[in-house]
Automatic annotation (TrEMBL):
Sequence similarity: Belongs to the acyl-CoA dehydrogenase family.
Name of the featured protein: Acyl-CoA dehydrogenase family member 10
Ranges for domain Acyl-CoA dehydrogenase/oxidase C-terminal: 906-1054
Domain Acyl-CoA oxidase/dehydrogenase middle: 793-894
InterPro entries named in the record: ACAD10-like, ACAD10_11_N, Acyl-CoA_Oxase/DH_mid-dom, Acyl-CoA_Oxase/DH_mid-dom_sf, AcylCo_DH-like_C, AcylCo_DH/oxidase_C, AcylCoA_DH/ox_N, AcylCoA_DH/ox_N_sf
Domain Acyl-CoA dehydrogenase/oxidase N-terminal, residue spans: 667-789
Length: 1059
């Protein structure tokens, strides 16, 4: 199969993208060395430069001397006479500047012939573009040598140019190693320089061949055991080289090499067959040349030249095969049908199903000369040419997908419908059959893909491996002459071909299988982005752009990952200790992670696609006479209304139970609840244990895993209110009221908020960035925060001042050195100890003399900035709350650039107020969740525990406690929902009284409920076997952390008195 061939390409050094935290590179191996039949196993060919690859200095000197009336041989005589210490050799060792050399060498020449010798003009000629050009026969030979898997090197006595660069008029990419005397300080024939070259090539002397025009250089090489060729003229030197290597160096058929030992075909019977077959069409004579294409190793493919015929033969591989695999008969059929339908495919000539000819069935096609572009970035082309190539590729794909299957006689070429589903099943099965260890992303994909299959699928001919390097282009224009490699073709969903075609866009440029585009500026290169490419396809096909594009990308990468897993398994069998085998395993992980990234994006899309709730239809202020809506099944919903304090406020419904939420949000609520029950509760004890283990200051891997899952299910960033993010660019676009119901659910587990990227202090900081951040600040901080890749903290509270009054804070932000310098002592900074914490939102004073509320500013301080010292973690009732913790921190002369200031100097108070808008009530919403879960646990416990002859639940005091808790929770919830609703319909300012009231009420209510439950649990209630003890301590902390109760009470009282 086509992909397999990619694995056999010369691997490049490859590092996975740092943003993904992927494994480090290896893949520094070469393809197997050339072992021509009868030849020695050479691994490298080393070329001298002057006189071998480009004209020799002596021939240039002869020409120059003749035209400058200088006695012939002057230059060479001076060179030889100078010896090791003469200017020429010193120049070659890099010991002299160009100027110094010209002066010394000029003087030496002039003294020798007693005439002025203008060596500067000789130097100019020697290094000029018209002289210093590589011989084309040598270029062809080098390409050929490399195509056979041998390494190449240049080993040259060379010199520096006035520019400071060395003189190297060659394309460096042709060589694995370039060794130049001026860089090494050693010249040929010193044996050390040959050794350097061999060492860098990683070959033994006997494994290499050296070509030079100077006998003494060759002698030194031969003494080391290197095989040598004296170059008098390029033609005869290449002949000698061909004999040594055992393959031709001249007749270049692109992408071919001599036939590999294991892939040899019986030449005599093939030749006989061909002469028979072609005999009727043309006179046949002369020897037959057989080469193997580097393409199509799954179905080996050969270039056959016989007389004036040039054919391509494609056959099944040797050995025992599965009946349906490597079906060359199918390939022959589809190519023929498509050729007849006018598609650019090679013309097929014959299908031979008789295995007696060459051992397996095969078919013949006409050779199609042209250009194959192997790299997606199309190096060497200009932007307009690249654009044209991509457009042509897109057009030919459309042409393929437009083929009338019936008219082409291909109706039975594959099953109709459910292509993707069948593919997912097939590749899952294949993957399972070759699985070697658990790859988490593959597991998630195996679960996710079947649940997100496209609903409507068209059935067209699909290529199955449609890539740039499976196309032959016209050598001069952007026109596809032939589409190759039809092994995976069938009838199926055409969008899968388009997505597969775009995979290179997401792979790095040094990726070992396909050189991708992900780290290149495609727009600058003239290449359409994946999105543009997909749109181009849809436009041409006159179809609307499929919304589930990310699904198709996930599916494409999954399929490749499954294929690679098979390759890995096989390579493990073949090479027990091979590094390459180990790496192909890593590629499975890499590809599946990429696939999962797309699954996550698709999750977002589905979620974002939920209809936007219309605020005006459920604004605050509906009268009691309004009947609540009927629920399915005829029951009345609990949605109700109350009277608005502001007469001008729009009217709407206060939804007090999740059942009355608009359908999409209700559905979301259901999924969130199920997620928490299924995935979060069962691991809570492990997470508590992790928080007490030595690894507690590192994120718990289980949380990280669940974050990915939550993301993919669209249960992510639910907190950002629609009023802050009206275009739903960043979040789920829920109202505060809707979120209140969801946030309560998350509050039921202390670990849940982070899993859904809805935890403090990130939520407040993200909202701050959405509201006040510049585009630059958003790109740097908001996007990774929204992605859950980094975390943040908010630094306001200071030990030396009463920080419940934010105007007290003393830390300074001073303008200095074109930026701001921060000094201060902070504490209780939640999250700062988390290794993922990269941003500190810092509150300090820019102007202590400004009016009281204009002294403060907010600055974004990267945590990596020098001068930030976390002194210690603080604990709450002995709980350190790792990995984020609550830190005491010193900021000493911390400098940040000016553009890190938010909104402007003196705007800090305003921002802090805004920051604490919706975020202010999230804690209250969660406290309702703590309480609800606590009551549930209490009810369960008291039903099962017997004391003094009867279950606890029958004790009157327990019953009273349950009743009080139920009433407490419901009262507080109503107040929380009312505050949230008011924020939605009347704004944060109008909701100030209600916000203060719930902050005053919710923590103490939760403390009462939790305290009753702890009492009912007995001593077990204090232990960390249940969440009760932690709930209690956090509810207690929130009586301070969210601002002290007294401050909220004072606010409520002041406002009440004004009414
Ligand atoms: C778990 C936890 C996490 C925290 N996380 C952060 C964080 O991430 N970032 C951050 O900057 N800060 C954080 N804090 C700090 C928190 O915001 C402050 O503790 C809070 O604002 C109170 O400030 P203070 O501790 O300086 O108390 P003070 O201001 O010294 O007040 C002490 C007490 O004085 C009384 N008091 C104050 N004002 C009044 C009043 N008007 N009327 C009557 N009595 C009054 C109250 O009883 C109050 O508790 C956190 C605190 C905790 C416990």
């Amino acid at each position: 199969m086509g992909l397999l061939r990619l694995l056999r390409r010369p691997p490049a050094l490859w590092a996975r993208s740092p943003t993904r935290g992927l494994p480090s590179p290896i893949w520094a191996q070469h393809p197997p060395p050339c072992r021509p039949s009868g030849g020695r196993p050479y691994k490298a060919v080393i070329f001298d430069m002057g006189g071998v690859l480009i004209p020799s200095p002596s021939s240039v000197a002869t020409e120059w001397e003749a035209s400058n009336h200088i006695p012939s041989g002057t230059i060479i005589k001076a060179l030889v006479a100078g010896g090791e210490k003469g200017p020429w050799m010193r120049f070659m060792r890099g010991e002299m500047t160009v100027e110094g050399f010209l002066q010394a060498f000029g003087t030496q020449c002039s003294e020798m012939i007693k005439l002025p010798v203008p060596v500067g003009s000789f130097f100019s000629l020697l290094t000029s573009g018209q002289v210093a050009k590589q011989f084309s026969v040598m270029t062809e030979a080098i390409n050929r040598i490399r195509a056979e898997g041998l390494k190449t090197a240049v080993l040259s006595n060379n010199f520096y140019l006035p520019s400071g660069e060395s003189f190297l008029p060659l394309d460096r990419k042709q060589f694995d190693v370039v060794v130049e005397s001026c860089l090494e300080g050693i010249c040929k024939p010193d044996p050390r320089i040959y050794k350097i070259c061999l060492q860098r090539l990683q070959v033994e002397p006997t494994e290499s061949i050296f070509l030079d025009d100077l006998a003494h250089n060759l002698k030194a090489a031969a003494q080391l055991g290197i095989h040598t060729i004296k170059v008098n003229d390029a033609e005869s030197a290449l002949k000698e080289l061909e004999t040594l290597l055992g393959f031709s160096l001249r007749k270049i058929i692109p992408n071919t090499c001599s036939v590999r030992k294991t892939m040899e075909i019986p030449r005599d019977s093939l030749e006989k067959y061909l002469k028979n077959f072609l005999g009727s069409q043309a006179a046949v004579s002369g020897p037959m040349e057989v080469l193997q294409f580097s393409h199509g190793q799954s179905n080996p493919t050969y270039s056959i030249r016989l007389a004036n015929h040039h054919l391509v033969l494609r056959k099944k591989p040797p050995g025992k095969l599965l009946p349906s695999a490597h079906a060359v008969e199918r390939e022959f059929r589809i190519i023929k049908a498509l050729h007849d339908a006018g598609l650019p495919v090679p013309k097929v000539l014959d299908l031979c199903e008789d295995s007696s000819i060459i051992g397996t069935p095969f078919y013949l096609m006409e050779y199609c000369p042209g250009q194959i572009y192997k790299e997606a970035s199309l190096p060497g082309l200009d932007p307009s040419q690249r654009k044209a190539i991509y457009t042509a590729m897109n057009q030919v794909l459309c042409q393929l997908h437009r083929v009338d299957v019936k008219a082409a006689g291909l109706e039975d070429y594959g099953k109709h419908g459910d292509y993707v589903q069948r593919q997912v099943q097939t590749w899952t099965k294949q993957y399972r059959a070759t699985e070697t260890s658990t790859v988490p992303a593959m597991e998630r994909l195996i679960e996710w893909l079947p649940q997100h299959l496209p609903k409507a699928q068209k059935a067209t001919v699909v290529h199955g491996d449609f890539r740039l390097d499976n196309l032959i282009f016209h050598p001069e224009k952007a026109e596809v002459l032939a589409i190759l490699d039809w092994e995976l073709s069938t009838l199926g969903d055409p969008l899968s071909d388009v997505a597969y075609n775009c995979m290179a866009h997401y792979l790095p440029s040094d990726f070992p299988l396909i050189k991708g585009l992900s780290d290149l500026d495609v727009t600058q290169l003239g290449i359409p982005t994946a999105e543009e490419y997909f749109k181009m396809y849809c436009r041409q096909m006159e179809i609307p752009a499929a919304e589930n594009w990310n699904f198709y990308m996930a599916f494409s990468f999954f399929r490749v990952a499954a294929i690679l897993q098979g390759v890995y398994k096989r390579s493990l069998k073949g090479q027990s200790s091979s590094a390459a085998a180990e790496q192909s395993g890593k590629l499975v992980e890499f590809m599946s992670n990429l696939a999962w990234d797309f699954a996550v994006k698709e999750g977002f899309r589905i979620f974002k696609g939920l209809p936007t709730p219309k605020l005006s239809t459920r604004a605050y202020g509906v009268w009691a006479s309004r009947r609540p809506p009927l629920l399915p099944g005829g029951t009345r919903s609990l949605a109700t209304a109350s009277k608005a304090p502001q007469a001008a406020a729009p009217k709407g419904v206060l939804i007090i139970s999740p059942e009355a939420l608009p359908e999409p949000v209700r559905e979301l609520h259901g999924r969130l609840e199920k997620f928490i029950e299924t995935h979060v509760y069962p691991i809570e004890q492990d997470l508590r244990n992790h928080q007490m283990s030595e690894a507690r200051w590192t994120p718990a891997p289980q949380i990280e895993k669940l974050k990915e899952k939550a993301k993919s299910e669209g249960l992510w960033n639910l907190f950002l209110p629609v009023e802050t993010d009206p275009e739903r660019k960043y979040g789920a676009g829920l109202t505060n009221l809707e979120y209140a119901h969801l946030c309560e659910l998350m509050g039921k587990s202390l670990y849940a908020p982070e899993i859904f990227n809805c935890s403090a202090p990130d939520t407040g900081n993200m909202e701050l960035l959405v509201r006040y951040g510049t585009e630059l600040q958003k790109t740097r901080w908001l996007l990774p925060l929204l992605d859950g890749k980094i975390r943040s903290c908010f630094a306001m509270t200071e030990p030396q001042v009463a920080s419940s009054d934010a105007t007290n804070i003393e830390s300074s932000i001073r303008e200095e050195r074109g930026g701001y310098v921060v000094n201060g002592h902070k504490w209780w900074i939640s999250g700062i100890l988390d290794p993922r914490c990269q941003l500190c939102v810092f509150m300090g004073k820019t102007d202590p003399h400004a009016p009281r509320h204009q002294q403060q500013s907010v600055l974004l301080v990267p945590m990596e900035t020098p001068g930030i010292k976390v002194i210690r973690p603080l604990s709450v009732y002995g709980l350190e709350d790792p990995p984020g913790g609550h830190g005491e921190v010193l900021f000493e002369n911390v400098w940040v650039p000016k553009d890190h200031l938010v909104l402007g100097p003196g705007r800090g108070f305003e921002i802090a107020q805004g920051r604490l808008g919706p975020g202010r009530i999230h804690h209250c919403m969660r406290l309702i969740g703590y309480s609800e879960r606590t009551l549930a646990l209490m009810k369960e416990r008291v039903k099962s525990r017997v004391a003094f002859g009867k279950p606890l639940v029958e004790q009157g005091t327990i019953l009273a406690d349950i009743a009080k808790s139920r009433a407490d929770i419901d009262q507080a919830r109503l107040l929380v929902l009312k505050a949230a609703h008011l924020m939605d319909v009347a704004g944060n300012k109008a909701a100030a009284l209600d916000i203060a009231m719930i902050k005053m009420v919710a923590p103490t209510m939760a403390l009462r409920v939790i305290d009753r439950a702890i009492q009912a649990f007995g001593a077990a209630g204090l232990n960390s076997d249940s969440p009760l003890a932690q709930f209690f301590s956090w509810a207690r902390a929130l009586r301070l952390a969210d601002g002290p109760d007294e401050v909220h009470r004072a606010t409520v009282a002041r406002m009440e008195l004004k009414r």
